[in-house]
Amino acid sequence: MPRAIVICAALCLALTACSGQSGSGGGLEKPTIKVGILPIPDDAALFIANSKGYFKQEGLTVQPVVIQGGAAALPQIKSGALDVSISNYVSTFLAASKGEKIRSLGGLYQAAPNTFDLMVGKDSPVKTVADLKGKTILVNTLNNVGTLAVTTTLKAAGLSAGDVKFAEKPFPDMANAVAAGQADAAWMPEPFITATQAQGFTKLADTMVNETADLPVAAWIATDDWVKNNPKTLAAFKRAITKAQQLAASDRKEVEAVLPTYTKIDAATASKITLGVFPVSVDSGKLQKVADLMKEYGYLQAPIDVKTVLTDTP
Predict the structure, then answer these.
(1) Where are the domains of the chain?
(2) Phi then psi for 55, rounded to 5 degrees?
(3) Extended beta strands in the chain, E state
(4) How far is CA 221 from CA 39, 227, 258, in A?
(5) What confidence category does residue 70 fall into, taking pLDDT thresholds of 50, 70 and 90?
(6) What strands lie across the sheet with 202-206, from one edge to the other?
(7) Are both 9-111+215-308 and 116-212 of the same fold?
(8) Is 1.10.357.10 the CATH classification of the domain at 116-212?
(9) What would the pLDDT profile of 77-104 be if each residue is shown by its tens digit?
(10) pTM (2 d.p.)
(11) How far apart are CA 269 and CA 271, in angstroms?
(12) Beta-carbon count within 10 A of 13 CB
C-alpha cells in the first residue's frame, strides 16, 4: 500500500476516534432522552443548548416535556417517562430524606431579589403579608421551595404556615384563579410576575430575602439507577448543559432569546423581567442552607447531608 494512502487511513481513524470522544453519539446508552421542564427562566440553559447545537455536538437529542412542578418530576423519572427533569432542591431533598433514590445532576437557578414574589390581584383587599391570615395562597406544588419561601415570609409578619391555606395551581393558571376569586395570593416566579403586573397585579412581598436570600432553587435530577446505567449519556448531557449554563450566566441576551420559545411571553417582556442567577458550579454550602431551613421549618424530620444527593460536578 502506498505511503500516502497509509497516512490518510491513519488520519481518518484518528479523526473518527476524536469525534467519538467529543460526543458524536457513538457509545451513548441513550442518544435520545426526555427532559422535564417548566415554562420559567430556571431551565433556560436547556433551550440554549438545543438552539446552539450543544446537545447535537454530543450526539444527544433532548426532547423537552412540560411538567407542573418539581414534585411532579419524581414519579415520572421513577417510571421512566422522563430520563432527567428540572426540580427544586426542596422537593429533591425531601424525597431523598424519605428514601427515594434520586440524584441532583447540577444546579440551574439561584434566587435574586424580586425573582419569586407573592402577588395579589387588582384591587385586592390584601395589602400586607399579615392580611393573609386565613387566606388561600397558590403554589405550583405543595411542600416545595414555594411553600418554604412563603413560610419564611409569613414568619417575618408574625404568621405561620398554619395561618394560611396553600393550594396547588400551575404557574400559567395562577392569575386567572386569583382573578376568579379561587385564591387570595399566588407565589410566582418570572416571567409571571411581569406578565401579571401588566394585568394590574401587585407585589405583596419578595419571598427571597433574609433567610432565603440567594437561595439555590432548581437543579436537574435523575434516579440513581439512571445515573448508574447511563454514564456516557449523563456525561454528554452535563458537558452540553454546562456550556449553555455558562453562556446564560455571562450573557442575558442569550436567555432573552430563548424565553419566548418555551414560555408564553414575547421578546419585549423577556427583555424586562428580573432574572436570578445561573450558577456555573455547585456550592454545597449554600445547598446545605436549603436543607437546614427545611429542618427548621419541619420539612425534614432529621438533618441530611446534601452531598449524599449530589453527583460529581462536571
Answers:
(1) 9-111+215-308, 116-212
(2) -65, -40
(3) 32-37, 61-66, 84-88, 102-110, 116-120, 136-139, 165-168, 185-189, 202-206, 216-223
(4) 17, 10, 22
(5) low
(6) 165-168, 136-139, 185-189, 116-120, 202-206
(7) yes
(8) no
(9) 999 999 999 999 999 999 999 999 999 9
(10) 0.85
(11) 5
(12) 10
97 is written with which cell numbers? 430524606
Q: How confident is the model at residue 264 (pLDDT cuts 50, 70, 90)?
A: confident
Q: Considering the domain 9-111+215-308, what is its CATH architecture?
A: 3-Layer(aba) Sandwich (3.40)
pLDDT of residue 26: 62
More confident site: 308 or 5:
308
Given a cut of 60, is residue 24 above it in pLDDT? no
**Cis amide bond preceding 191, omega within 30:** yes
d(CA 309, CA 294): 15
Long-range contacts of 170-174 (CB under 8 A, 24+ apart): 170/68, 170/69, 170/140, 171/38, 171/39, 171/40, 171/140, 172/39, 172/264, 174/119, 174/138
Place of cell 414574589: 117
